[in-house]
Design brief:
The chain is α/β, with parallel strands linked by helices. It has three domains: 124 residues, NAD(P)-binding Rossmann-like Domain (Rossmann fold, 3-Layer(aba) Sandwich), CATH 3.40.50; 140 residues, Rossmann fold; 144 residues, Succinyl-CoA synthetase domains (Rossmann fold). The protein is built from 16 helices and 20 strands. The strands form four sheets. The protein has a seven-stranded mixed beta sheet with strand order 9-8-11-10-12-13-14, with helices on both faces. Strands 15, 16, 17, 18, 19 and 20 form a six-stranded mixed beta sheet that branches. Strand 17 and strand 18 form a beta hairpin. Helix 6 runs parallel beside helix 7, helix 10 packs across helix 16 and helix 14 runs parallel beside helix 15. The longest helix has 16 residues. This is acetate--CoA ligase (ADP-forming). One of its GO terms (molecular function) is ATP binding.
């Protein structure tokens, strides 16, 4: 059964809505309203007539019929009865934010099984339980927290609400934006493969980022991810890679972590992009979302910091990045315009006396050579005019900007405002080049 209306409903009932600003039942209603959700919002609470100037209904049964999505923010024990009300209202999609299920204890596990049995019997699809909801920025469906409204090409599927919130916040702050966000929780019903299938066909999604504690249905996941990767990049961060980490997975979302070596090998075979940390996860997704894809992996580093250039080389050692030698002709042309102290190789070290003009001359010359596909441009100190140079040359070839020690000059912000991603670590830039 399709889960399209999970992301594209014409009406949402928040069951457990609250007038208390500190409660999740209030926050979800508030975020839906402030995100300008295009459909109807129906708060459900038997103890009040209105919440945030919206009419409140005493029960889901008494809310307008054929409500398309229910967001349940109530104690776990009340969820089975709410699902039965969903059936009476013909609600076919539910997000169960409530915790206290299989991640908690054996009694919670039994309750989760009961909830799933009711949902299957009544043909209701469930996201969760123990999840942080979803966001679709294109229609204002922010049935989660924090409030994120910046639209963009990045879609996130994760078992961790905090990781989803972090990536969404960073993407909004850096002018990248998100298309869809879904937090899986315990995955009693809807799992990562279901969501990947949906996102693979979603026109607003340019890159799919996935964080998983564990994968119970490995073959289903790999098949969905492989099909999606044929259409758009799929970036994967896996938790529980260590022995102790895999034990912690079970108490988080009741998942089975499995052997990471097997998972990694299978993902690489299917063309997925694997990352090793939250920072790497975000930066790779950001780079893929906002940078043009190069025709090949031939890369040249242009830097004003010799040390940073060395770190970039070290990072490229185990990656599919070809740090090519500059041609004799390119060296001749660079020698004509650059000062004697510059080191005319790869990295092209403009030294600490580099100016925006030197960067501009270098990029213009290197852009002439078809065998150069990527330029990693490392700016070690604030250089007046450097943001304008990168903006001017950005469309000539794939430029991956790295800015260190920018102080308060606002150079990084100029690029971000122009929709150009900026990286703060040479190693991350090389990982992005590899992913591209």
């Amino acid at each position: 059964m399709t889960i399209r209306k999970l992301f594209e409903p014409n009406s949402v009932a928040v069951v457990g809505a609250s007038r208390d600003p500190e409660k999740l039942g209030h926050i979800v209603v508030k975020n839906l309203k402030e995100a300008d959700f295009e459909g109807k919002i129906y708060p459900v609470n038997p103890e009040t007539d209105e919440i945030l100037d919206l009419k409140c209904y005493p029960s889901l049964k008494e809310a307008p019929k054929k409500t398309q999505l229910a967001v349940i923010v109530l104690p776990a024990q009340k969820v089975p009865s709410i699902l039965k009300q969903c059936d009476e209202n013909n609600v076919k999609n539910a997000i169960i934010v409530s915790g206290g299920f299989s991640e908690y204890d054996e009694e919670g596990e039994e309750l989760e099984e009961e909830v799933l049995e009711i949902a299957k019997e009544m043909n209701i699809r469930i996201l969760g339980p123990n999840c942080q909801g979803i966001n679709n920025t294109s229609n204002g469906l922010c049935a989660t927290w924090p409030l994120i409204t910046k639209e963009g090409p990045l879609s996130i599927v994760t078992q961790s609400g905090t990781i989803a919130a972090a990536l969404s916040n960073w993407a909004e702050e850096e002018n990248i934006g998100v298309a869809k966000t879904a937090i899986l929780g315990n995955k009693a019903d809807i799992d990562e493969a279901d969501l990947i299938d949906y996102l693979a066909d979603d026109e607003e999604t340019g890159v799919i980022g996935i964080y998983l504690d564990g994968v119970e249905k490995g073959r289903k996941f790999l098949e969905a991810a492989r099909k999606a990767a044929e259409e758009k990049p799929v970036v994967v961060l896996k938790g529980g890679r260590s022995e102790r980490g895999s034990k912690a997975v079970k108490s988080h979302t009741q998942s089975y972590a499995g052997k990471y070596e097997i998972f990694r090998s299978a993902c690489r075979q299917e063309g997925l992009i694997l990352v090793e940390s939250v920072t790497e996860f975000y930066n790779v997704c950001k780079g893929i979302a906002a940078l043009p894809q190069p025709e090949d992996s031939n890369t040249v580093i242009v830097t004003s910091s010799g040390g940073s250039g060395i770190l970039a080389i070290d990072a490229a050692e185990n990656l599919d990045v070809d740090l090519i030698d500059l041609s004799d002709r390119a060296v001749e042309k660079l020698d004509e315009v650059l000062p004697r102290e510059c080191i005319l190789s790869n990295p092209l070290d403009l030294t600490g006396s580099a100016t925006a003009g030197m960067f501009d001359d270098s990029i213009k010359i290197l852009a002439r050579y078809k065998d150069i596909n990527n330029l990693v441009v490392i700016v070690g100190d604030p250089i007046p005019g450097i943001a304008d140079v990168i903006k001017e040359r950005f469309d000539r070839l794939t430029i991956i900007p790295v800015m260190l020690g920018m102080g308060k000059e606002g150079l990084k912000e100029k690029l971000i405002d122009a929709g150009i991603p900026v990286f703060s670590d040479p190693a991350l830039a090389m990982k992005v080049a590899d992913a591209l």
